[in-house]
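Re: How this chain folds, sequence and tokenised backbone to follow
Notation: Tokens come from a learned vocabulary of local backbone shapes, not from coordinates.
Start of record: The labelled sequence and token lines come straight after this line.
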Amino acid sequence: MATRYEKLMNSELNRFWGMDYYAFIHNVLGDVTTKPSELVLDIATGTAFIPRIMVQKEQKFSRIVGLDITLEMLRNGKKLVGDQEGNRTIDFVCASAHEMPFQPNTYDRAVCCLATHHMSVDKLLSQIKFALKPGAVFHIGDVGGSSKWKIGFIRTVIKVFAFIYFLVTENYSRARAESKAVANVMTSEEWREKIVQQGFEDIQIREVQSSKFWAPNPIIIQARKN
């Protein structure tokens, strides 16, 4: 997916939510104002779309580190960053979000978009807490779930639908991954519970209304490390 990732995200987000990739990121970071001294971590950065947006919007920061487990994504991201002014402030690390290779209390801000449903949220939040400085903030944006999804029959139907949909539109590997990810999609209440368990404060969680009545709403989360 690396060479066509951003076009694919635009297509899929428009189809499911009625917004493009840029509009979704704006929902996650639209009101964020960074400081010149900030060190920012973009988790599951993919092709560095978020770091490039922050550069384009002339957000002030010391450095952005884009972390992703897929080397080919980072290679394509580096090519795209290379064509933009200010690219020296963007670095790349190939690693898992479950085992981030950083010193504790390093970052002033962390971002993770459209990826948490493919992860263990407990491990991710633990790693974010480890990497952030005291008082630092994280931002997460992803698909939100309904309490009805926890009903076994409904969850199975959604998993089967997701598998068939992505098998037809993409391939077997993507279909398997997205079907498996259904079990990781959480409600706002479940997110809040897990964030509280990790000891974060000032938790803000909101849903953005999808333009498609049949699609689950995207969920936007922000919290601060105490």
